Amino acid sequence: MRKERFCLEGLGDWEVLVPTTVYPPREDTELLCMAISRLARHGGKAVEIGCGSGIVSIFLASLGWEVTSIDVNPYAVSATRGNLESHGFPSDRVIESGIGDGFEIPEGTELLIWNIPYLDSEDDGSGLISPIEVAALSDIPNGGWGGELLELISESPSSISREILVLLVLRTDPDSSSRISDWESRGWSCRSLNSTRMGREKIEVFGIWRTGFGLGATMIESCASTMDEAKKFPGGGWQRVCSSEQTDGRGRRGSEWASRQGGLFATWAIESKLLQSISPGVLQTSIGSIVANELGANMKWPNDIISQDGRKMGGVLVEASEGSPIRVGVGANRHGFDENGVTGSGWEETIGPMDSKEVFSRIDRSVSSFFEEAGILPGTPQETLVSISWEALSVLLSRGAMLEVNGELVRPVGLNRRGELETIGPRGHGVVAELDGTEWLL
């Protein structure tokens, strides 16, 4: 048994007793606690799985959460109880249990937290630590402990799986058995909240929730324009519409968008207060980068989705009006075409024969991960959105793409906080805010 001091600058300073067989507070513990501290509200029911020394449960309790703490290691359970009591918090909700041992998530739980073990089971230091320590410190193969948790939540009452917010600490480089992609494939949105390097490993904290908190999209067979359909939405929540057919789609500045059979026609209504922290330009470019990534395509500033050979696959349109939600429309072709001298590409060339509903589901989850107002979870910083936009555009630039502005060739070198291109050319540094007078040379 040893004493460990855990200090979070500006938040608190605690001393805990840690048995030799229990994981002590480390950098990943601090990473998780800092992510918790940034939640928009505190108080309510929380569960911590793998409570170890109890320091995260103590931190949650100090913020006003009613915490249920569980661990498979009886020494960890004893340590958590003792450490909670020594800091003046109740210890009657500390349980010796694990995933798959009959533990049920209590009704009304809003927040579930787990610093998932990421030691590979084959690297468990066989012979050096006991079986109970292996269970507490090692991930398991075939989906990992993250997969086991996903199954537990999926089998819980629908009120829990719809409304719960999950915070997981995962090793993302190199990949561990517990993968965020398993959650995404099952309809969960995932937002990276914090990350650090511990030696050669990257450790990341994710906020995870049911896309739309269980509220499904409006799916219709046909409409004139999904942008107009989105105007009918009531305010609040993750509102989006997807149509199998669109007869009067539009692009930038009212230009016509040819809506071809089998394509994707969808619009999201996003709370207008988002524009208080994110510019419309960055909103457009970042969603363009998200869509391009899901379609295996490239993003061409400011709003086009194109194939590697430069043929247009789709586009993003952002519209906003006073007092109304922002409408973000996405259109994309399923099939390539060559009509009257105009050529285009489709997602079947990049991600294969996937129907529009499945493509919509993938894009919806990804857009939600960055832009949905997910309860008490903080929003995505504008710097992150600028970064993913520039990363997507850089793929195109790495293939030699250049921009001609009013007859002069310039090279894009950055993207500013307004979503405008920063360039360098014969006249020095410049900024391109509009497409007028510009032409991409691919």
What is the beta-strand fraction? 25-35%
Question: CATH superfamily of the largest domain, called what?
Answer: Vaccinia Virus protein VP39
Main beta sheet: strand number and arrangement? 7 strands, mixed
CATH class of the largest domain: Alpha Beta
- Class derived from helix and strand content: alpha+beta
Helix content: 25-40%
CATH topology of the largest domain: Rossmann fold
- Would you identify the regions where 5 or more consecutive residues have pLDDT less than 50? 123-129
Short description:
The chain is of the alpha+beta class. Helix content is 26%, strand content 31%.
What does this structure look like?
This protein has three domains: 2-213, Vaccinia Virus protein VP39 (Rossmann fold), CATH 3.40.50; 215-393, BirA Bifunctional Protein, domain 2, CATH 3.30.930.10; 402-441, no CATH class. The chain is 26% helix and 31% strand. It is built from eleven helices and 23 strands. The strands form five sheets. The protein has a seven-stranded mixed β-sheet. The termini are far apart.
